[in-house]
Amino acid sequence: MTTELNFTASPALGRLCRWLRTLGFDCIYLHQEDRTAPDRSCSDRIYLTRHVDPNERSVIFIGQDKVLDQLKVLDMLISLKRRCVALSRCIRCNTTLINMNRHTAKLEVPEHVFISHDRFTRCPSCGRIYWPGTHVDRMEERISKLFS
Ligand SMILES: [Zn+2]
User: Fold this and answer.
1) CB under 8 Å, gap of 24 or more: what pairs does 126-129 form?
2) Predicted TM-score of the model (pTM)
3) CA nearest neighbour of 78 among 96, 54, 55, 62
4) Are 89 and 50 contacting, i.e. CB atoms less than 8 angstroms apart?
5) 35 CA to middle of ligand 1, Å?
6) Interval between CA 77 and ligand 1 midpoint (Å)
7) Rounded Cα–Cα distance for residues 103 and 2 (Å)
8) Ligand 1 center–CA 92 separation, angstroms
9) C-alpha 96 to ligand 1 mean position (Å)
10) pLDDT 10s digits, 5-54
11) Which residue of 59, 101, 126, 148 is most buried, as measured by CB atoms within 10 A?
């Protein structure tokens, strides 16, 4: 399952990028501000930035400081809630997670984790294993509040 929206986040928006990945959105994180990219407006990605540039299309200016406020604004503008597939993407490297066979998971996660969870996913790129609760900072709880 994939979402229809892809993003590029500018350097000042690292937390927002992490949250968007948690919500299942493809979000590339720029380590340097990309002021010169010629194809930005015809890219299939929405560029998220804190720098105002009214001539740019496919750019959303993020004026809010708090990440939950930033997400609310994005939800108003482009209906994040309707499109998100939460906890389907690797926070670390932006790759779509794949379901993991429970027998394989048994060999690779701590026993107490295996016993208390039914569903495991793995990032095919970096190998990180996820289960409900691994998305840090109580993100799941905050996601449900955000979109309630
Ligand atoms: Zn990964």
Assistant:
1) 126/90, 126/92, 126/93, 126/95, 128/90, 128/92, 129/100, 129/105
2) 0.77
3) 62
4) no
5) 27
6) 28
7) 26
8) 5
9) 8
10) 899 998 999 999 999 999 999 999 998 766 655 455 556 888 898 877 66
11) 59
